[in-house]
Amino acid sequence: MKLPVVLFGCCLLMLSGSLDAPAQQVRTPINNYTPPAYPDTNRIPRIKAITAKTDSLFRAYARTNNIPGLVYAIVADGQIVHSTAFGYSNVEKKIPANNQSVFRIASMTKSFAGMAILKLRDEGKLQLDDLVSKYIPETDSIIPLTGDSPPLTIRHLLTHTAGFPQDDPWADRQLSITDDAFTDFLKKGVSLSNPPGITYEYSNLGFTMLGTIINRVSGKHYESYIRDNIFTPLGMTDTYWEYSEVPDAQLAKGYRWVNNNWRKETLLHSGAYGMMGGLMTSIDDFVKYMQLHMNAWPARSGPDNPVMKRSSLREMHFPGSMVNLNSSFKTPDGQVCARATSYNFGLAWAKDCLGRIFIGHSGGLPGFGSNWVFLPEYGLGIVAFTNHTYKGPAILNIQVLNTVIAAAGLQPRLMVASPLLLQRQKQLFALLPDWNNAEQNNLFAENFFDDYFIDSLRKQTRGLFKKAGKIMGVKDIVPENQLRGSFTIQGEFIDISVRFTLSPENPGLIQHFEIRELPKKK
After folding, report:
1. For each of the chain's 522 residues, which pLDDT tens digit applies?
2. Is residue 14 part of a domain?
3. Relative to the CA of 33, which of 43, 188, 232, 368 has its CA 20 to 30 Å away?
4. Domain with 476 in it: what CATH number?
5. Domains in the chain: how many in total?
6. Do 204 and 323 fall within a single domain?
C-alpha cells in the first residue's frame, strides 16, 4: 500500500492507558460551556463562487498526469458543496466517471480499521494497550530484535510503531491472500526493522493484523463487522470489499500509463490484507463517512452519534506517533511554511506554521490513487479519487483547500469566553494600574503574590499606563480555553496586552499574569 503522503503533522504524544477504559457518561456537564463558532456567515455561497477555479486545478492535474478518470468533492458544514468528475471510470467501455463510480481507495481504508478497533474498545471488548499475542498467538513466533524490546501492543499497530519494515509495494500484491495463509505467514515469524515503540515506520502488515484482531474479538470477519457497524448505519450502499460484487456500470477500472497508453491493472480480490487497503466506494458514499468525522468537531453537549462517539472520533484525530518536522516545507504555491506531521489510528495529522490542523489519509494501489483531508476548525474538507496507479492528489488537495480558504475568506471557529473568564477580566481590570488592596482580594490564587511581587507589579503597570496616555477602551477578551485568555487595553499612544490564566480550583482564581506593550498599528 502506497505510503500516505502526509502533508499535515505534530509532536509525539502517546495517549495514556486510562483512555482505554470503557467510556463513562458525564454525570454533571458544564452548563455554561459554549462551543466555538464561526465568526463569518454565508460561507457556502462564497465557496461555491470559486469552484470554477478548483475545477480547473483538477482538470489540469488529470491532464498533466494522464489520469483516465478523476472524481472530487468539496465538503463543508455537513454537505457536499461541490463535486465534479472528469474522464472515464472504464476506458474500454467509455463509461464516464461520476459520483456513483466505485473506486478502490487503497490506504484510505486504514481509518476504518482504527474506527472498528475503537468501537470494540468502547464496547469493553479490548484495550488499546493489550498485547497483540492475546488475540493473535501466532505472533509469539516473532523474535524481538533486542532483549529489551517491549511486547507488541494494539496501539503499536495503530500508530505504525510496531517495528515492522515499510512494506509497500510488496503489500500491494498481498491483498487477496486468505486468512489462513496470513496466519501461516505469521507462524513463520516476521522480519523486524526496529524494536517496537521507538519510531514511526509505515506498515501495511500491522493493519492487516488489526483486521485479524477485529475478526477474533468481534466474532465476525472484519468485512462484516465494519459493514454492519459503519457502512449500514451511515447509509453507505455503494461501498464494497469485493470488486466482483460491484455493478459493472459503477466499477472503476484501474490503469497505469505505459508507452503513451493506458494499461489496465489487474484487480485483486478481497482477502486478509483488505483491511490495509482493499475498500471500494463512491465519492457520494465516502462523503457520508467524512461527515461523521467532521461532525465530531467541536466538542459539545447534546446527543451523541450512534455510529461512533464524537470523543472517540476526536481521539482518532489526535497526534500519536511522530512522523516528521519539516521547517522548510513549501506550500503548493511555493511559500515556506513549517509543518509537523504525526500518525494515529489510521489517520495522518498535521499542523502548519499558521496553526492550521489537517487530518486525512492518502491511498495508492496498482490502478488507483486517492486522498482525503479536512480541517476540523474550518469545517472544510476535500476528497478525490483517481483510477491511475499511485496518482493520489494529496498535494493538489492541500492547494485546493488553501485556495478555498483564501478566496472565500474562511475563518476558523472561535472560542467563546466562559462566564468565569469574563468575570475575572472585569475584576482584574478594575485593579489596574495601582493594584490597590489586591493582596486582600479573593481574586488571586495562593501562589500569585509569591510569584509576582506587588511593588514590581505596580511599577510595571503604572509605567505602561503612563506611556499609553488616556485609556480609550478595553477590547473583549480573546479566550485560549475556558481558563486562559488575553485582552487589550486601548491607549491614546500605545495599547497594552494583558494575559492571565486561572487555577484549577472551583471557582478558578488568577494564578498567572502577563502585561506588555503593544505598539499602535499604523
Report:
1. 444 444 433 332 222 333 334 444 444 455 578 999 999 888 999 999 999 999 999 999 999 999 999 999 999 998 999 999 999 999 999 999 999 999 999 999 999 999 999 999 999 999 999 999 999 999 999 999 999 999 999 999 999 999 999 998 899 999 999 999 999 999 999 999 999 999 999 999 999 999 999 999 999 999 999 999 999 999 999 999 999 999 999 999 999 999 999 999 999 999 999 999 999 999 999 999 999 999 999 999 999 999 999 999 999 999 999 999 999 988 777 889 999 999 999 999 999 999 999 999 999 999 999 999 999 999 999 999 999 999 999 999 999 999 999 999 999 999 999 999 999 999 999 999 999 999 999 999 999 999 999 999 999 999 999 999 999 999 999 999 999 999 999 999 999 999 999 999 999 999 999 999 998 876
2. no
3. 43
4. 3.10.450
5. 2
6. yes
DSSP string, 139-199: GGGPPPSSTTPPPPBHHHHHTT-S-PPP-TTGGGGGTT--HHHHHHHHHT----SS-TTS-
Q: Which of 402, 379, 366, 356 is nearest to 265 (CA)?
A: 366
Residue 502, domain extent: 419-518
Report pTM. 0.91
Contacts of 385 (CB under 8 A, 6+ apart): 70, 71, 72, 101, 103, 105, 252, 283, 368, 369, 370
What CATH number corresponds to the domain at position 357? 3.40.710.10
Are residues 404 and 425 both part of a single domain?
A: no
- Indicate whether 7 belongs to any domain: no
Residue linked to cell 513466533: 141
Task: Tell whether 4 is covered by a domain.
Answer: no
